[in-house]
Structures are given as structure tokens and as C-alpha cells.
Amino acid sequence: MTATVIDGKAFAADVRAKVAEHVTRLKEVHGITPGLAVVLVGEDPASQVYVRSKGKMTVEVGMNSYEHKLDADTSEEVLLALIAQLNADPAVHGILVQLPLPAHLDSDLVINSIDPAKDVDGFHISNVGLLGTGQKSMVPCTPLGCLMMLRAHHGSLSGLNAVVVGRSNIVGKPMAQLLLGDSCTVTIAHSRTKDLPAVVQQADIVVAAVGRAQMIPGEWIKPGATVIDVGINRIDKPEGGTRLVGDADYDSCAAVAGAITPVPGGVGPMTIACLLANTVTACSRANGLKEPEGLTA
Ligand SMILES: Nc1nc2c(c(=O)[nH]1)N[C@@H](CN(C=O)c1ccc(C(=O)N[C@@H](CCC(=O)O)C(=O)O)cc1)CN2
């Protein structure tokens, strides 16, 4: 079997087009322009690229983008004061603090200081609790993107066996909650899981979010299963230079799976598209308006 490649770039372009339509309606019918504030502390090169890309795409879909770049040695007090200012600003409907933060800053404290209604990353403890109890929340962007691609590929996910490999707060745990919400039978596997290959072999859906390059080989995959690869790892090429790979070993998994997301060009582009979707959702909710269809969990 050769897997169908789930094209995350094309999918993300489609999500952004839907966001842009909704933004146009918000502007033309209601006179509201959604606004997204992104806060970057320090000069991590990858974070700088992601933040630039977020700002560019925010403007492309017709929303206002507010970028706040702070020095790496910014104090917690200054960062919290900025977040309080953004919480109070009616032009700002979404707030995102780019992670990772420098080590001297307490990420949990910072994230939990964001107004949950503006927490477009879905990382605030209130949103975590709402998602865990099946209530309306802001949903973390990467798992939301994975869910959208899975729904589009499978139609209904009801009754499917899903194995999420990785238990991070940003991907693994919310992904498991979303799959449970769609009536999958869900297992969260991790570094201490006994006989990981046997666990993964039961899965109709494998979400690889463990953060280790090419860790999941094709022999672990049930023929016809769907592999969603959340990993973004840079490895050395034998001929020199580097390349990006996922947490699944692409070639051997693609030979067995029914469908697979590539790296790059799979889950990654959906992360930013879903951030824009969450911002338009937050703006609609803040104004008591109908939420965009197909852009929420
Ligand atoms: N506050 C947040 N911080 C971080 C998040 C997040 O969702 N919220 N996620 C990641 C970084 N990230 C967005 O912030 C992100 C990662 C990857 C991509 C992406 O499109 N990747 C491309 C490859 C890009 C490359 O060439 O390096 C792909 O997979 O095709 C977008 C956004 C950590 N921080």
C-alpha cells in the first residue's frame, strides 16, 4: 500500500480562505476588524520566523496584527503588565505569547495571566479545563489542525482506535481530548509505555507527537492506518546540511499507512491557519455573533 499524502499546505490555505471570508463579513456587516497580538520575548531564530509568518498571514486574511517584541532579559513584571494592557484593549481579540519563553520567565504564570476569552493558543488553565470537560473553549492550534485534517480524511472518527504518542500539554493531551470528543477510543502512549510497537499496531489513527526524529517505523503501523506526524526535527544530511523530518519514519510508514502527513508541509502549516481561525472565533464570541462554521472543534 502507498499512503495518500494529506497536504497540510493546501488544507491550511483553504482554512485561511474561510477565515478571510468570515473577516470580510465581520468588517462589512458589523464594522468589526479582528485583531491578534503576538508577543515574542528574546531572539530565538525559529520563534522569530514563526512570529513573522503569523503577522504576515494575519494581515493577509484582513485582520489587524499587533507585534510586541521584547528583549530576552525582559522581567516577568514587564511582560505581565503588557499582557494586562492587551487583555484590556478592545481592539485585541486574540493574544499569543510565543513559546518557548526564556528560562527566567514562568510560562504557566504568563499564560494564565491572559484573558481566557482571548487565549487563542488555548493554553490557559480555564481553556484546558473546558476542553477536558467537553465544554466550549479555545482549542490549541496544532491539535485543532490535526483534528480538521482527520475529519476531512475520514468523515466520522467515531469508534476508531487512536493512539497519541506523546503527552505534552500543548499537543498530546489536548489531541487526546479532541479525539475522545469525536468518539475515538483513545490511548496516550509515552516513553514509559510498555511494548509501544504493540500499542501503536492497534491504532487506526496514530498521532506522532513525541519530539524524537523518525522514532516510529513503518513496522509499527497497522496497514491502512492514518499517520498524523506532529514532529518537526532538524537532522543532518549525509551529504552535508540539514533537513526537517517528523517523529514518524516517513518512507517506511508511507509504505504501510492508508494516509500520512508529510514533514514539512503537513501539520505545521495548519498551526498558523488554526491560530487565525481561533482569532476570528474569539472575535465572534466577544461580540455575541455566530461562530465561523468548520473552523472550531
Ligand atoms: N505560543 C505558541 N508557541 C509555539 C507554538 C504554538 O502553537 N503556540 N507552536 C510551535 C511553533 N509554531 C508556531 O508557533 C509553528 C511551528 C511550525 C510551523 C510550520 O509551519 N512548520 C513547517 C516547517 C517550517 C520550517 O521550515 O522550519 C512545516 O511543518 O511544514 C508553524 C508554526 C512552538 N511554539
TrEMBL record:
Its EC number is 1.5.1.5, 3.5.4.9. This is Bifunctional protein FolD. NADP(+) binds at G166, R167, S168, I232. It comes from Yoonia tamlensis. PROSITE patterns: THF_DHG_CYH_2. Residues 6-121 form the Tetrahydrofolate dehydrogenase/cyclohydrolase catalytic domain. Keywords: Amino-acid biosynthesis, Histidine biosynthesis, Hydrolase, Methionine biosynthesis, Multifunctional enzyme, NADP, One-carbon metabolism, Oxidoreductase, Purine biosynthesis. Coiled coil: none annotated.
